[in-house]
C-alpha cells in the first residue's frame, strides 16, 4: 500500500512540473515583447461607448497595475 501511495505521489510531482508547449511559447513571447522584440498594436477602447480612445503601434512594453495602464513604445521612423 505504501508503495502505491509513493508511486502516485511521484507521478503527481512529475506531472506538476511539466508545462505544455503552448505555455512555454506564451512565456517566451511575453518575455520577448517586454524586451521590445515584438511588434505590437495596442488599442484602448471605452467600454461604455465602444469608441477607440487611443492606438499605439510599435515595439511596446505593456504593464498593468493598480488600475493603471503603462505603455512604453519604441517606434521606428517611417
Describe the structure.
The protein has helices at residues 2-17, 21-34; strands spanning 39-45, 52-65, 68-74. It is an alpha+beta fold. It has 2 domains: 1-27, no CATH class; 36-78, no CATH class. The model has no long low-confidence stretch (mean pLDDT 79).
Map the helices and strands.
Blueprint: H1 2-17, H2 21-34, E1 39-45, E2 52-65, E3 68-74
Antiparallel strand pairs: 1-2, 2-3
Please tag this protein with its features.
78 residues; alpha+beta; 2 domains; 2 helices; elongated
Strand content: 35-45%
The helix count comes to 2
Instruction: Supply Rg.
Output: 21 Å
Q: How far apart are the first and last residues' alpha carbons, in Å? A: 70 Å
Give the total of beta strands: 3
Report the major sheet.
3 strands, antiparallel
How many domain regions?
2
Q: What order do the SSEs take from the amino end to the carboxyl end, as H and E? A: HHEEE
What is the average per-residue confidence, as pLDDT, rounded to a whole number? 79
Task: Please give a quick description of this structure.
With 78 residues, the chain is of the alpha+beta class. Helix content is 38%, strand content 36%.
Amino acid at each position: 500500500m505504501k508503495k502505491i501511495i509513493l508511486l502516485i505521489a511521484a507521478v503527481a510531482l512529475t506531472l506538476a512540473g511539466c508545462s505544455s508547449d503552448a505555455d512555454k511559447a506564451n512565456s517566451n513571447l511575453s518575455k520577448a515583447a517586454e524586451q521590445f522584440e515584438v511588434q505590437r498594436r495596442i488599442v484602448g477602447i471605452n467600454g461604455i461607448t465602444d469608441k477607440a480612445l487611443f492606438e499605439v503601434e510599435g515595439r511596446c512594453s505593456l504593464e498593468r497595475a493598480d488600475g493603471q495602464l503603462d505603455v512604453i513604445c519604441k517606434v521606428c521612423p517611417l
